[in-house]
């Protein structure tokens, strides 16, 4: 990985000059990032910093014309790109500016921070991809999330030798009065010659009496193999399948549950999404306008089932993937087993693993004395309703979303319930947090979901983190009364990974938070008991004993402790040899890109789909475009420099 951080010479900085108030790219600092394996990974990078007006030594004009600012900058940019003059291009950026690319110019997920890295990337990739036909969209806007922080934001379109792409540009003022690029994002939207089969390219001929038999034939794959098998029929698997279908890539989804949606349907009754409906739409078929802002689990389960049928996805339910093995020709042999015990072996070009965190296998800690405990031990995935535990004492191990939901359900049914908190939890209310996080992109009336996805993804992750630190403090201030109440009763709350709140914690940990919809007040009021003053030492016959000698009686212990690692889930299906080459799943690379999901996994033509509804909606297109490009022979070399 050292090559990623090679300097390209002081001639770049001297050619560009310096900008008042902006640290030179030559003065790099050491930053320690958390690695997937838990150890430090010290690398030479620029320290991410928000482009505040004070840092830039700049101010805003009262009569600012955002479209004019964007047009003037973009004209210079387009001319420099046409001339393939990378010195001129990076001269239009802040020295610590960012270029994020998803497939369009790299066939990878990459983020380049600082003009030296941007120039190296452009020197390598601009000519081979032949970036051209750059067109600025109308609608440039001045965004000013805080008085000291402002940028002009605008979307644009472009083409390369293989594809059609979109981008997002953010410009900031400088002390000289010149506007410079703070962030630029490019992403692949379509492969030339291989458009999606929808809209004007849908089937126009009537189908008289043949549709049902055609669908059955398509779904059965009798006497033929699909090009792609997707293992897992949750939102990740369905999104991958529907994107591939629109690109005319034959795909079969294997789902072990009896019905699509059972991943949600069979969880606890009180389960409900805590992110808003505008954030959660699925590709091509948004939720109807009457849909509730926060979706109950059973409702989303039924929607997934309906979605698979309406989008005519080929799904085999009650079917498990028993093994995935490589063949001598580079394809995959996938053996599946149906509910009746019969098996079938497919030979496919690609395998998409849409297994969720850990393949849905519960993470069950073990403690001394557990075998002698006379009560019941279950995982949160086995909990259905507090009605099953009326009259019992329940202890929940864990203090994030599932733990709070289950505790609230128990309290509402009169169950004596205690939350055992092992580490601090990020808390925000949906009332105060959701509008501050999603209001500018995913909210009522904010515009097309496609544009929202572009804008949301365009901000490099480490810059999103810096901005999120401020937003997290704003939310905490709005939630002050609630947080003060939690503090008084001893609840341990933090502000998430790097103090950046919800989204960054989701991207790095996949958890560690609770979006409050009422359980916190029950803790404050003592209706949900709290235990967090000592580490759990062992089980007794009648409950739990802690290191300080205290004990809790418990008839039922519920582990709200998440799931096993994705690596274990892959290993169970693919075996030791194949899974040994798979990259870590989740958390971030040194550049702030998600590890493993939606992109090169380390093993040719094996892919992993993971994420919430919004992530899966957007990045399923990236996954499908990579597969389609490989199938059609237009996939280029992944940029790894």
Automatic annotation (TrEMBL):
Cited InterPro entries: Auxin_biosynth/cation_transpt (IPR050982), FAD/NAD-bd_sf (IPR036188), NTF2-like_dom_sf (IPR032710)
Compositional bias of kind Polar residues: 25-35
Region (Disordered): 15-38
GO MF term (any one): flavin adenine dinucleotide binding
SUPFAM superfamilies, sorted: FAD/NAD(P)-binding domain (SSF51905), NTF2-like (SSF54427)
Pfam families: Pyr_redox_3 (PF13738)
Keywords: Oxidoreductase
Name by which UniProt lists this protein: FAD/NAD-P-binding domain-containing protein
């Amino acid at each position: 990985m050292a090559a990623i951080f090679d300097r390209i010479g002081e001639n770049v900085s001297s050619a560009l000059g310096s900008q008042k108030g902006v640290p030179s790219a030559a003065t790099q600092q050491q930053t320690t990032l958390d690695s997937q394996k838990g150890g430090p990974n010290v690398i030479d990078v620029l320290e991410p910093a928000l482009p505040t007006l004070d840092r830039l030594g700049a101010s805003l004009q009262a009569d600012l014309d955002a479209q004019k600012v964007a047009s003037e900058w973009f004209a210079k940019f387009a001319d420099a790109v046409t001339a393939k003059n990378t010195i001129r291009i990076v001269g239009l950026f802040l020295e610590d500016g960012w270029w994020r690319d998803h497939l369009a110019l790299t066939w990878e997920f990459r983020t380049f921070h600082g003009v030296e890295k941007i120039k190296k990337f452009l020197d390598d990739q601009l000519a081979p991809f032949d970036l051209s036909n750059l067109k600025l969209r109308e609608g440039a806007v001045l965004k000013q999330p805080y008085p000291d922080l402002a940028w002009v934001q605008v979307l644009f379109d472009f083409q390369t030798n293989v594809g059609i792409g979109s981008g997002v540009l953010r410009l900031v003022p400088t002390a000289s009065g010149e506007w410079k690029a703070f962030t630029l994002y490019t992403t692949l939207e379509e492969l030339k010659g291989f458009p999606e089969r929808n809209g004007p390219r849908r089937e126009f001929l009537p189908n008289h009496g043949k549709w049902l038999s055609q669908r059955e034939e398509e779904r059965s794959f009798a006497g033929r193999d699909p090009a792609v098998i997707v293992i897992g029929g949750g939102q990740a698997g369905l999104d991958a399948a529907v994107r591939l279908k629109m690109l005319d890539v034959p795909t079969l989804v294997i789902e072990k549950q009896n019905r699509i949606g059972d991943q949600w349907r069979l969880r606890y009754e009180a389960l409900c999404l805590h992110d808003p409906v505008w954030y959660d739409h699925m590709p091509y078929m948004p939720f109807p306008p009457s849909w509730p802002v926060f979706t109950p689990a059973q409702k989303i389960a039924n929607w997934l089932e309906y979605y698979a049928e309406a989008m005519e996805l080929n799904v085999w339910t009650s079917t498990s993937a028993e093994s995935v093995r490589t063949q001598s020709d580079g394809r995959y042999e996938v053996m599946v087993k149906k509910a009746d015990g019969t098996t079938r072996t497919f030979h496919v070009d690609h395998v998409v693993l849409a297994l969720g965190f850990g393949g849905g296998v519960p993470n069950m800690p073990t403690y001394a004395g557990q075998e002698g405990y006379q009560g019941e031990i279950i995982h949160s995935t086995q909990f259905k309703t507090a009605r099953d535990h009326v009259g019992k004492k329940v202890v929940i191990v864990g203090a994030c979303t599932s733990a709070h939901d289950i505790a609230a359900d128990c309290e509402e049914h009169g169950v004596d319930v205690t939350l055992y908190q092992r580490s601090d939890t990020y808390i925000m209310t949906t009332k105060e947090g959701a509008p501050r996080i999603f209001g500018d992109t995913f909210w009522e009336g904010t515009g097309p979901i496609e544009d929202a996805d572009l804008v949301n993804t365009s901000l490099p992750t480490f810059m999103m983190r810096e901005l999120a630190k401020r937003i997290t403090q704003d939310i905490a201030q709005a939630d002050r009364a609630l947080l003060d109440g939690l503090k008084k009763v001893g609840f341990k709350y933090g502000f998430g990974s790097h103090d950046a709140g919800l989204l960054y914690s989701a991207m790095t940990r996949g958890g560690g938070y609770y979006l409050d919809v009422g359980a916190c007040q029950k803790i404050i009021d003592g209706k949900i008991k709290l235990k967090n003053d000592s580490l759990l030492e062992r089980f007794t016959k009648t409950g739990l004993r802690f290191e300080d000698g205290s004990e809790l009686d418990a008839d039922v212990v519920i582990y709200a402790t998440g799931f096993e690692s994705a690596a274990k889930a892959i290993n169970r299906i693919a075996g030791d040899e194949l899974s040994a080459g798979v990259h870590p799943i989740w958390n971030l690379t040194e550049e702030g890109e998600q590890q493993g999901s939606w992109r090169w996994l380390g093993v040719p033509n094996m892919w992993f789909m993971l994420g919430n509804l919004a992530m899966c909606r957007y990045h399923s297109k990236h996954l499908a475009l990579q597969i389609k490009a490989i199938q059609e022979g237009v996939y280029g070399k992944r940029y790894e420099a």
